[in-house]
């Protein structure tokens, strides 16, 4: 039901699919409730050593004082800040420059949200036009 006009909530997953996210109540770990999300891959497949450390890095990061509930501020210290700060922590650990909000948005988020927007537009149009989509039988493919 997303219309493209409201803010989205942002989180980072561990290797088991648990989403770490930050809001006015602090850091949450959610194993469900994110089924209708846009997934943005951040780790390349050729980085197995990073994948092995990811869960530990994320857990340690989420426990830092910066993410206590009283530090939350809707415009300047929010879920997006949490996700970007974690990404930049990982980048620094690998000797890479941190990304600004604009760089992160342009490089990682905009391509995925555009793709999702096209899908949602197509889905709405098909639903409004009473089309019915069925998978092709194996021999017809």
From TrEMBL:
A Pfam family cross-referenced in the UniProt record is DUF4796_C
Q: Where is the MKRN2 opposite strand protein-like C-terminal domain?
A: 1-126
Q: Which PANTHER family match?
A: MKRN2 OPPOSITE STRAND PROTEIN
Q: InterPro entries of this UniProt entry?
A: MKRN2OS-like, MKRN2OS-like_C
What gene makes this protein?
Answer: Mkrn2os
Q: What is this protein called?
A: MKROS protein
Q: Which organism is it from?
A: Dryoscopus gambensis
